[in-house]
Amino acid sequence: MLNVPRLISACILLADFVVTNPNKRVKGGKRNRSFDNIYKTGNALRQFTNTNAFSCLALCSDDIDCRSVAYNLNDGRCQEFNRDFTNQPVVGTNQVGWRHFDVSKGAACKDRPPTARDCDDVQSQGYTCSGVYTISLVPGKSVNVLCDLQTAGGRWTIFQHRKDGSVNFDMNWFSYKIGFGDPHTEGWLGNDNLYRLTSSHKTELLILMEAWDGVWKYASYSEFYINPEADKYRLRVSGFSGTAGDSLMHMMSFTSPQGGQQFSTRDSDNDAWPLRCNPTHHRGGFWFNKCGASDLNGIYYSSAVDIPASCNWYTFSKNRQSLKTIFMMVRKV
Ligand SMILES: [Ca+2]
Predict the structure, then answer these.
(1) 298 alpha carbon to ligand 1 midpoint, in Å?
(2) H/E element holding 196?
(3) Where is the signal peptide (predicted)?
């Protein structure tokens, strides 16, 4: 799993650390005790405040007894637990916003990828390692895709990833339509595939972003889909929550109630700006308005350069600083 993205790698490393570090296990000497099935509140080890999902996982790795965490998306509380709660809701708390993360999966990656419809299907087939799998969104046609099977319950199909600037994202309409790049490094899964992924079920969107100072933030949307190419892959997104702020908001405002902005590329101007958002202000393909507060497909810079044409999310830090890492992912609700 050398090429999986950093966040996912970190999750796996955390899992390996907890599971395989023999010194720590012996030192703690508590691994043989049984884990009961009572509510999470009865298995809580520690609670932290003002964390993010990533630091919450890191804190768990420091505790021999920690096997899973619950992270509150709304207020940053992080609770550690001494057992796994795979796919179970947090019980025993009335507050909303809790998401659960298993840390010590302990399951070895299966080396033969399945053919599945999406990453939700991959996970349903028993695969637990985040990484690249082969899926088939169209009968008889397969595509490699990066699956996040750990963050917030997993089942995420990643359709956009930036991490090192190795792939040019200022591509034309056709390239965005069919997809480009490599799921092992950087890429765009393709607007036709994104339409297929989001049109057959209600889907949610999660965007994970890391700035150059190592701070991770996220934007979550409870509903997300795009229209087919005939409507220029028009954006529909709603139900924001998260720490990074809502920088897709302007792609949905100034528009008719029927939908948000259409997709634009450097050779297909469907934005609301009198000229073209790309290249007037931005680069890459996106759902530009006039032109909007984000451009996650902009130019990748190797530092926090404050430029609108960069891959940026304005509400992350109230500027246009180029981000270090980006994941855009969808899953069935
Ligand atoms: Ca225009």
Answers:
(1) 17
(2) helix 191-199
(3) 1-20
Mutual orientation of helices 6-20 and 53-61 as an angle, nearest 10°? Answer: 20
Q: In angstroms, rounded to a whole number, what is the distance separating the alpha carbons of residues 56 and 30?
A: 22
Task: Compute, in angstroms, the gap from residue 65 CA to the centroid of ligand 1.
Answer: 56
Whether residue 291 is preceded by a cis peptide bond, meaning omega within 30 degrees of 0, is yes
Q: How many CB atoms lie within 10 A of CB 17?
A: 15
Over residues 83-95, the pLDDT tens digits come to 665 545 444 444 5
Measured in angstroms, how far is the CA atom of residue 313 from the centroid of ligand 1? 21
Separation of CA 311 and ligand 1 centre (Å)? 20
Pair 325, 210: CB distance under 8 Å:
yes
C-alpha of residue 275 to centroid of ligand 1, in Å: 4
**Which token pair is 278?**
């790309």
Q: How far is the CA of 264 from the centre of ligand 1 (A)?
A: 9
The model's pTM: 0.70
Structure tokens at 262: 């259409």
The CA distance from 266 to 245, in Å, is 27
Q: In what side-by-side order are the strands of the sheet with 98-102? A: 44-48, 78-81, 68-72, 98-102
Determine the topology of domain 115-332 in CATH: Gamma Fibrinogen; Chain A, domain 1 (3.90.215)
Greatest Cα pair distance in the chain: 68
Q: If you write DSSP's letter for every residue of 64-83 in order, what string do you get?
A: TT--EEEEETTT--EEEESS
Ligand 1 centre distance from Cα of residue 114 (Å): 43
pLDDT band at residue 305 using 50, 70 and 90 as cut-offs: very high
CATH class label, 6-102 = alpha beta
Angle at alpha carbon of residue 293, lines to 291 and 296, rounded to 5°:
95
Q: Where are the domains of the chain?
A: 6-102, 115-332
With cut-offs at 50, 70 and 90, classify the pLDDT of residue 11. Answer: very low
Q: What spacing in Å lies between the alpha carbon of 308 and ligand 1's midpoint? A: 16
Ligand 1 centroid to Cα of residue 156, in Å, is 33
